Every structure is written in C-alpha cells, then in structure tokens.
C-alpha cells in the first residue's frame, strides 16, 4: 500500500485548503505557493504516487483531470490567453508530493517550457 500524503487529507477536508472543485473522481485546489497568478492543483481522489504507478483502472479519473482543467481555465478567465498543464514524476522532475497532481498554471506569459 502506498503511503498517504497531505493531499489525501485535503481530499477528505481534514486540513484546510482552497478547494475550488470536487467530484467523485478528482479534487482541485489552489497551490499553497503559487508560481503564477493562477496556480491550481488537480488530483485524482484515489492515491497514485507517481505517473509510473498509473494503470488502465485509473483512466476515467485521469481523463477527468483534463475536463476539469479545461473548465477551471475557463472559469479563471485564462482559457483564451492560454496556460500550462504540468505533471512531475520522481526525482529529476522535482516531484515533492507523491500523490500525482496536475499543475494548472497561467495568468501571465509563462516563458520557455524548461529551464536551461
Ligand atoms: P510537485 O513539485 O510535487 O509537482 O508539486 C507539489 C506542489 O504542491 C507544490 O507546488 C507545492 O506548493 C504544493 N503543496 C505542497 N503542500 C501543499 C499543501 O499543503 N497545500 C497546498 N494547497 N499545496 C501544497
């Protein structure tokens, strides 16, 4: 069994978070340390530690991440200008929380995809 992270507590509303969307499959909340005017994390309610742990059983929740991302981007008013969706995996990416999460960042020009 994978070890729970702080994100499981956020999903169960056991600790405070600015949750902006939740359904049976996913939860979305504002990042505690925003890197852009809009910085929202969208996560599956089921614990999947990294992208390497994804199986076909997760496909409905992972598809929902994208439909919810598109809805939130529209609600935040950043859909037309554009935004970036990021999912880190393991050490080289800098993943810090081992419950997969899609970063939705936007609200300003974001610059090149990768630091040099
Ligand atoms: P990673 O580097 O794993 O892709 O991103 C983890 C993200 O989770 C970071 O952007 C970090 O600011 C955010 N984060 C970590 N702990 C918390 C928390 O307790 N609440 C919220 N809202 N965001 C968190």
Automatic annotation (TrEMBL):
Motif (Histidine triad motif): 99-103
Keyword Iron (UniProt): no
UniProt cross-references to InterPro entries, sorted A to Z: Histidine_triad_CS, Histidine_triad_HIT, HIT-like, HIT-like_sf
Pfam families in UniProt: HIT
Domain annotation HIT: ranges: 6-115
Active site positions: 101 (tele-amp-histidine intermediate)
SUPFAM superfamilies found in the cross-reference section: HIT-like
Assigned keywords, A-Z: Hydrolase
Any one GO molecular-function label of the UniProt entry: hydrolase activity
Enzyme class: hydrolase
EC numbers for this chain: 3.9.1.-
NCBIfam families: PRK10687.1
Protein name: Purine nucleoside phosphoramidase
Organism: Xenorhabdus szentirmaii
Source species taxonomy: Bacteria, Pseudomonadati, Pseudomonadota, Gammaproteobacteria, Enterobacterales
Gene that produces this protein: hinT
